[in-house]
Amino acid sequence: MGSSPRWWWSSSWASPPPSSTRHHKGEGWGLGGPVLVKAVGWFLLAGLFFRVLCSSFSSPPLTEIEKGKCNLFDGEWVPDPSGPAYTNATCRFIDDHQNCMLNGRPDMSYLRWRWKPYECELPQFDEVRFLSAMRNKSWGLVGDSILRNQIQSLICLLSKAEEPVEVYHDREFRNRRWHFKSYNFTISLLWTPFLIKSEVFENENGESSSEIQLHLDVLDPIWTSQYGNFDYVVIAGGQWFLKVAVYWENGRVIGCHYCQDKKLTELGFEHLYRGTLQRVFRFITSSNHKPVVLFRTWSPDHFENAEWFNGGTCKRVLPYKKGEYSGKDMDHVMRAIELEEFRKIMPALNGSGNAGTLKLLDTYSLSSMRPDGHVGPYRFPNRDKDDTSVQNDCLHWCVPGPIDAWNDLIMEMLLS
């Protein structure tokens, strides 16, 4: 991974409006230009905030917590002097832009914590046990750059037992596939940031020439065409839904989000994300193929003092304690949509006897407590980290880092 020059391509999750701002390769993680964020973004959020206050964000749907089992997602970070399961010296699959050790991060304290659920222990990832259980199986990881971030962690953990061979990648290294020969186990990365059909007018430098075109009524065939090949699927998204986009349904334009100089109805990101999740969940429940599907929840950023486009940073070196951090308004809005739509689909699964095929991988709470685990200014080596012009990445995670706990959770959920 680290050797692939475009692994990080399109890591920006919400670029400024293409008609007014051009951003260069690797830049940008925010909602849009400052004026739009303050004017349009807050206006939209104001209409949602009351509903958000009435929702619960700390616990997953009750259907996901089996009777007699602890809630793996409710706990705290506790000191772990043993350190990470791997390092940049022992794993060659870390993307350069998340390789905080290689890029000179001086503090190592962010590597010495482990996630501890309140009512049980979360075992450390066991690569041999995992690969043995997945012999002759195939995994598909479907989503955006945060999911690519997670797959780096997963492959680093698994490579302690056996290094995989990359058997496929497309021209931009967006879609990739690895094979663990001794176990006949395959992991595929399917890059589809919206999960629905999209037309993105960005070149390899991340420069946009037009608004994204999104087809709300058509799932992205990049992943649906391969769905039948997988025994396990991890699906996640969210951040790209905040981008400037024109919305289509039934072959015609029905509105937009953050559009400039267009006489189109502002539908907002909530409409897009809710409708997308409804379509994704309906596809899963109606498909004749029944893999185990893990839906991973919203991944928070921790920009402080400003946003990505105007000097926001993430300089904390310790986790938050339970209840110390309540999250951002955007976290609450997106998370409320996820939990509501997940709850709504569960009766259909229970009625068909396939409830076990869809599980909630609720990483939000544990991730929200780790402001210290982001890449920050350590995206590139040999950069003056005190230089205020260095753009911080407070969305993606250092590898190794807190993101390793996401894979610990996966193993416990599937193999316990």
Structure description:
The protein is α/β, with parallel strands linked by helices and 416 residues long. The chain has one domain (34-415): Rossmann fold (3-Layer(aba) Sandwich). It has eight helices and 15 strands. GO terms for molecular function: xylan O-acetyltransferase activity. It is found in: Golgi apparatus membrane. It is a single-pass type II membrane protein.
How many domains is the backbone divided into?
1
CATH architecture tag? 3-Layer(aba) Sandwich
Contiguous low-pLDDT stretches (5 residues minimum) are: 3-57
Shape: globular
Which structural class is indicated by helix and strand composition? alpha/beta
Computed CA radius of gyration, to the nearest angstrom: 20 Å
Strand content: 15-25%
| CATH fold name | Rossmann fold
Note the quaternary state here.
single chain
What's the total helix number? 8
Helix content estimate: 25-40%
- Under CATH at level 1, the class stands as Alpha Beta
Order of strands, main sheet, comes to 4-5-6-3-9-12-13
The CATH superfamily is known as SGNH hydrolase
**Succession of helices and strands:** HEEHEHEEEEEHEEEHEHEHEEH
Instruction: Tell me the distance between the termini.
Output: 30 Å
Please provide the count of β strands. Answer: 15
Mean pLDDT: 84
Task: Report the biggest beta sheet as strand number plus sense, adding barrel if it closes.
Answer: 7 strands, mixed
